[in-house]
Design brief:
The structure holds 2 protein chains of 2 kinds. Chain A is mainly alpha-helical. Chain A has 9 helices and no strands. The chains are: A mainly alpha, B mainly alpha.
């Protein structure tokens, strides 16, 4: 079993394995998001308070979840890279950042669009959930900006890894913000001590989209990590052979 | 059909959210593919330049 993990750290092995996994992740994403979106838009019953507007949940919650999950992947990968000096781990962190940033933006945008008809406002400065999610976006930008500002790749890896790890404190703040402070945002519906507080026929499309978005993230992440690997290993024999072969 | 579009009066909000999500997902895929293609192109041309200089 350990051989499997050991081989993963080998760039050419990872490069080939990732290529095989991407289509499977993409297919899983397509099926799950396809069902989740169709069922969420047309099959789930309207909410007794919010009517059909609640359907935004089927893109807003998966986006918000992904924004935080991508950051966790980034921080954990950065930590592994820092502690065990694995280049591939730093590649994963660097690859996760832009995807996470996009979904943080999406969470903020869909939340804003939902907020306008429901709570009468596009944005509320000082709202703890909105502010902490906005900080998450800035952390992603900071991570990417720091990486591009440092020429030496090893130094860029280390510095950005420290930023990623320090910024991880924002994740529990985002999650608990609605419990610790007064917020326009509702409390947790899924991750609760008493279990999910949502009707079952509304829940299934939501879970499908959450898992579907996760597979989507996985597929795009693997695509980006392969590009990072190519760049970092450009002087090695296997990359040279690969580039000249597929000319 | 028009019920679906109207979404109980919330149509613009619901559909713009889903539309934006689709746009972001397509952009993510497109960016990843473009980066891979560009990296391969740049590295390959550098390699070929090195080979021809030998």
């Amino acid at each position: 079993m350990w051989t499997f993990f050991h081989k993963l750290a080998s760039p050419p092995h990872f490069y080939r394995l990732a290529a095989k996994m991407i289509p499977w992740f993409a297919m899983a994403a397509l099926l799950l998001v396809g069902y989740g979106t169709v069922a969420g838009l047309f099959l789930a019953p309207p909410d007794y308070q919010q009517g059909d507007a609640f359907r935004i949940i089927y893109v807003h919650v998966p986006s918000a979840y992904l924004s935080m999950m991508a950051y966790s992947v980034m921080a954990i990968a950065a930590g592994i890279g820092l502690i065990w000096r694995m280049k591939l781990a730093h590649s994963v962190a660097a690859a996760a950042a832009p995807i996470g940033a996009w979904f943080t933006f999406l969470a903020l945008a869909t939340g804003s669009i939902w907020g306008r008809p429901m709570w009468g406002t596009w944005w509320e400065w000082g709202d703890p959930r909105m502010m902490s999610e906005l900080v998450l976006l800035f952390l992603y930008f900071g991570y990417m900006a720091l990486r591009s500002a440092i020429d030496d790749l090893a130094k860029a890896d280390k510095a950005s890894a420290v930023l990623a790890l320090v910024g991880a404190v924002n994740l529990p703040i985002i999650h608990f913000s609605v419990e610790w402070w007064t917020s326009l945002h509702q409390g947790p519906t899924l991750v609760r001590a008493d279990g999910p507080a949502i009707a079952t026929d509304m829940l299934w499309p939501l879970l499908a989209n959450i898992f579907g978005f996760t597979f989507f993230f996985g597929a795009v992440l693997l695509m980006r990590v392969r590009t990072e690997v190519l760049l970092r290993e450009r002087r090695s024999g296997w990359v040279k052979r690969l580039l000249l072969e597929t000319a | 059909m028009s019920d679906a579009l109207a979404m109980g009066g919330y149509g613009p909000f619901v559909w713009s959210s889903f539309g934006l999500t689709l746009a972001v997902m397509v952009t993510c895929i497109w960016q990843a593919r473009a980066a891979q293609a560009k990296t391969q192109r740049v590295l390959r041309s550098r390699l070929e330049a090195m080979e021809s200089n030998k």
